[in-house]
Amino acid sequence: MKALFTILIITLPLAVNSQRNFAEQENGLNINQLEDAEEDEAGTENDYDSQQLNFFAKHPLDINGAGLEQLPLIDHYLINNLTTYRKLLGDIIDLHELQAVPGFSIDIIKSILPYVSIKSDKLTERNIRERITKGEHSILVRPSITPEIAQGFRSSSTQRFIGSRTALFVRYKYEFRNLLQYGFLADKDPGERFLAGGAKPDFVSFHLFARKIGIIKAIAIGDYTINIGQGLIHWQSLAFRKSSSVLNLKRQSEVLRPYHSAGEFNFHRGIAATISKRFSEITIFISRKNLTANIDGVVITSIITSGLHRTSSELNDKNSASLFSWGAALKQKIAAGHIGLNCVRHMYSLPILKRDEWYNIYALKGREWSNAGVDYSYTFRNLHLFGEFAVDKKKSYAYINGVVTSLSRSVDVAMLLRHISKSYQSVFGNAFTENSTPANEYGFYSGVSLKPHQNWKVDFYADIFSFPWLKYRLDAPSGGFAYLVQVTWKPARQAEIYSRFRYRLKPINIEDEEDERYEPGIQAIQNWRTHFSYQVTHTILLRSRVELSLFSHRYLRYPSEGYLFYTDVVFKPIGAWLSGNLRFQAFEAENYDARIYAYENDVLFVSSTPSFYNRGVRCYMNFKAKTKVKILSNSDLTVNLKIATTVYNNISNIGSGPVSIRGNRVSTAKLQVFLSK
Amino acid sequence: MFVRKFILFILIFTTISCAVSAQGAYYPYSSPYLSSAKSTENFVNALNAAFNPSLIPFIKNLQAACYAEKKYLTDINALLFTVCAPFNGNGLSLTFEHFGNMLFSEKTFGCGYGKSFGPINAGLFFQYIVVKIQDDESVSFIKGGIASSIKLTDNVVAGLRIADPGFFTKKETTKIRAASSFALSLGWEASSEVYAGIESLKYRGRPLSVIFSMSYRFAENFTCALNWDTYSNQPFTALAWKVKQLIIEAGCSYHSLLGASPLFSILYNKPSSL
């Protein structure tokens, strides 16, 4: 009876809307979130989520299984709703039935459909031999080059790069379902050495990761990431802050994740394991890794996280210090929630002593640092509550409490209160804050998502924050706010248009050009974007965007203005071996302050959101070819090629310092070969 | 139909806003929590009607209410008493408001009248405002305005409020007067439990302020609310408890530098006579 009900009634509307979901997604991730993350300097080279989605596209997750938290597209609130639904009405028997689960909108269902199935897969039954022998191998090679020669590659340069102009990324991975994986990667950025003159690659990473071995839920040897609570004490994976996905403010992830990405700082190197028994689990990790740091005598003055080692002075800083870390996270699941106890401790090889500045008075100091805290989540009716309370070595405290709720089918609300004292510090913290690290901030955020009509959606957020102490480039305690409103309209199944306005007031030191001095002030940044997508045929999608920016502060006689326009043509025939996209873009922004960010399609696993200022045009072509080859008995070969060029017409020198380029043109060519079996 | 009505509203709003010259004036205090919130039939109350008389016909029974706010936990207080008496599609409201402390005070005596013309309600209001600064003579003036609410659909109400439009003022006058203000609002009852509204409010000489308000009746006798005012950049949150004929509400607003302002209100709703 239930089968008939679900198949006949529930599938009807979805079948009508079965047009491919061309909403703004790339590699399965939300483009708006990725763009906003880059703007908030929360971008990361950690492509774990993209890799996971690529994996689940091949091996969909069982929607009735226990591993749904591995899917980065749905949050705990939805997982809880699904669990409650299954308890009441039994397992999902058809994916279209998800429409009957509270919170699962058509858009969410469309976004997860490629990655879930109703086929149960009893993974734990696989024996060790099967895990080792029956998995899939993949190798990825990605060279890229900028044909124009940067200053650092010229013999006349005072900061001469020691390596070649080519960037190279190589990654090998073995993976048996989600139960065993191992692999290594090697990476060099432009200007770094790679196997030249016997030198080893600039960055090498290895990981071995297994799941579900008896009571061991997960074990990692080599490189891994640890993600705890709401990020007040430790969060190393990709995490978003304010974006047009106004309800997405909760940090959620497995505590222990394998790491095999190009980023050279945000991970641990050592051993870690999660042991799980019934409703309890504990994760313990121990790690030691080398750091790139500026050393002054016997103290570390700053830690360099860029991962760039192109000049002899950058190379001298490489491995000049080390960090030993250990910690534990205990999680007790309770009905409709969990409570966790967490602690981490870090020991540097040399003491940290940052520059003697007023804003550094509360900065992290000394050789050792530790944090401890409690985190929780709880679902009560339609309310999902979550939060974390943390203290550091000096007993400074911080807390974050949030709630996400669906008030009706058309109204969803999220709120988050944060209080991070001016002296609170953490080494790998990454919470939902205005600052790039959780320190020196009080704030209150609320986001509302309204669906007044089937084809209309209104998203709104407001965030108010203050900094009780000075910070970098801000010489007084101050505060600010940010607002965003986005109206999305789907006039037809093939078309979507959204327009959004964002207004931010950010406190910062402002230059008074007349007196030639800086003093604390407020800068106002306004952005207005209108974006249009239209699926012309099953094969061709057109996208266009216009964005304006306005930057002002009290010493600017006229505000700085920015403008960006682009049109994309996306060519994606169903079942064809070749697909691609082209972009033509024009931009004009008076200066860096009025810059505008725009997401770009890139090769698989890479997300790219450059900012644009000055005046010019940009074009790129991005092609993807997928075929079967006879290597390793019928493997999938995917080749991506991206060629991009930007031509400026108001400058004759692009950039500054050793990466500057003479002339008004800068290009990139990127090739990626991905072989998997 | 909905779109036409809405466009008409926008046109009226922009025309009147543009017709006003810019000049300095006094800005009487009004809590964004009260002045903007709740404009649909099932959520409106006497406190909202005190600021927008076109909402009075939505009120079914006699209501009396008082509201108190302690600004930033200092000695600056805001107090408001109001009575709203509806009768046969019309209604009257009387209001007394005090704002200030020992050094400065602003007292407002107001009355409003609202009448229903089917899907459109219209309202008139007058306020007598007395401003007193310690060791100085008090200054008084009258503020007046009109308001209108239109039911665009069963659960969407658009509102317009105009106070002291500048074209009634002689330019040479030196007397103190209230700043002109124009407000356009849209209230939407997403369900019988959820209300969402937005009001854009333009005072002459000030940047445009947008006030977003939400109410959620999460249990039979409990309602919570969240408002956000973009002029002062303050969120307001409140929890209301219905006890027989009384609605008791407590909450607070928060300013990032000045801190929290607790607020409290009691509303009495006379039971319907059967």
Low-pLDDT runs of chain B: 18-23
Low-confidence stretches of chain A: 1-23
Sheet having the most strands of chain A: 24 strands, antiparallel, barrel
Overall average residue pLDDT of chain A:
88
Largest interface: A-B, 25 and 20 residues
Continuous helix count of chain B:
3
Number of DSSP strand runs of chain B? 14
Beta-strand content estimate of chain A = over 45%
Order of helices and strands of chain B: HHHEEEEEEEEEEEEEE
The largest sheet of chain B is:
14 strands, antiparallel, barrel
Overall 3D geometry of chain B?
A: globular
Radius of gyration of chain A: 25 Å
**What's the assembly state of these chains?**
heterodimer
How does this model look, in words?
The complex is a heterodimer of chains A (677) and B (274). In chain A, 10% of the residues lie in helices and 49% in strands. By secondary structure, chain A is mainly β. Chain A has a 24-stranded antiparallel β-barrel. Chain A is globular. Chain B has 274 residues and is mainly β. Chain B has three helices and 14 strands. In chain B, strands 1-2-3-4-5-6-7-8-9-10-11-12-13-14 form a 14-stranded antiparallel β-barrel. About 2% of the residues of chain B have low confidence. Chains A and B meet through strand 20, strand 21, strand 22 and strand 23 of A and strand 10 of B.
